Amino acid sequence: MGNEKRISLFRQAKGEFGKKHSELELRRERLNESIRLNREEFNGLLRQKSVAAKSKAKKLSKKISFAVKYGYVYGGHVKNEILGMLTLYNAGRSFAVKTQRHIRYDPSDPKLYLNMYFPRRAAVNGKNRLFVYIHGGGWIGGWPEAREAFTTRIAAAGYAVASLYYGTAPAYAHPKMIQNIYKAFAFLKENAERYNIDADEIFVGGESAGAHLAAMAGCISSNPEYGSRFELDALSRDIKIAGLVLNCGVYDMERALGTGFRNVGVYTQAYCGGVAVEDLSCDKKKEISPIYWVNKDFPSSFVISAENDKLAVLSFDFVAKLFQTGIYVEHFHATGKAAVHAFAVSQALRISREAMKEIKAFLKKISRDPVGNKKSALNKTAV
Fold it and tell me: In Å, how far from its chain's centre is CA 306?
């Protein structure tokens, strides 16, 4: 790639940095103002002596406590996301792709968008296979632009990649995120000819919180009972997912709280709109945990875990569940110092490139052949 192209991409990244930074500073200011107003209301309730006022003050106290913790965690998380976007997260990206950015997939919400990455070589049989990527970020952050090492390498392997921004918590608390993802699916299906994609065979992947949402989509795709719980776009609610790539995800929300993963309580509480997971009903805890909805029709899956990730036990649980259910699953467990949470996002690491090689082989194995016929059924589970 020429220097002019590299300079152009760097300037584009700096522009994204400035835009995101301004948006996030505004969000932080609004959060601080909300905390201030809640504290004033809390102090006013304390001056009252009624039982109702005391009860309301207790609930408001919990709300303020979460907002303060969220503000602290959010600030550090955003800093890491922005630095990652300019450095490690996009290191090792492929330049053998064509890119279209900030495509709005929901006319009613200008914040929601997707980026498209296309292989430069001609598509098999005239159409590109579609890989949808769902970024991580603890459900409170993350952007498609900060995952381009991963998404561009998938695209260079012969896939059209749609990388989604689906909104972040608590503004887009459960179930808004998964509903937004299905809006994006509908947009892609409706515009299949425009983007020259095969919308009948969709692969979905994600890391961390994105892997959780990808697994939810896999459950919706294969389990009508689960899908009926959500208000999904009519055009995409019955769409079938051909395979999943799940990188260091959360598959059981309640068990995640006991892993010791840093700030997991704040992340999960934000996902639930400010309500702590332990305060949810048993039914709701189950609803937000994809491990409980896996059935015999769940998509073939490539599951990644890492030795130095406290959430790794959740991936092992999920792989065991898939194995017991008879689903084809390949499990890539990374070891060594670089084997940290969501390591495969960056392609600067040797272990990440090894994972990418195995992901490509997995996708090729479960895809249809070039003339559009389904490959013979996979009858072996790999672990």
Answer: 17
Report H helices in 47-90: 51-86
Kindly state the tokens that stand for 191: 């515009």
How remote is the C-alpha of 216 from its chain's centroid? 10
Residues 6+ positions from 157 with CB-CB distance below 8 Å: 119, 360, 363
- DSSP code for 128: E
- Compute the C-alpha angle 378/379/383, nearest 5°: 90
Q: In what order do the strands lie in the sheet with 113-119?
A: 97-104, 113-119, 159-165, 128-134, 197-207, 241-247, 300-306, 329-334
Residues 363, 299: contact at Cβ < 8 Å?
no
What CATH class has 97-366?
alpha beta
Q: CA dist 264 to 138, 230, 360, 367, 370, Å?
A: 8, 25, 31, 35, 43
**What are the angstrom distances between the C-alpha of 274 and each of 231, 265, 278, 374?**
21, 10, 12, 44
**The token pair that represents 26 in the structure block:** 């505004």
Other residues' Cβ atoms within 10 Å of the Cβ of residue 246: 27
- In this predicted model, what pLDDT tens digit does every residue of 176-229 receive, in sequence order? 999 999 999 999 999 999 999 998 889 999 999 999 999 999 999 999 999 999
Q: Is-contact 290 223, C-beta < 8 A? A: no
Give the tokens for residue 169: 């918590």
Q: Quick one: tokens of 80?
A: 């890491």
> Domain limits of the chain?
3-85, 97-366
pTM to 2 decimals? 0.82
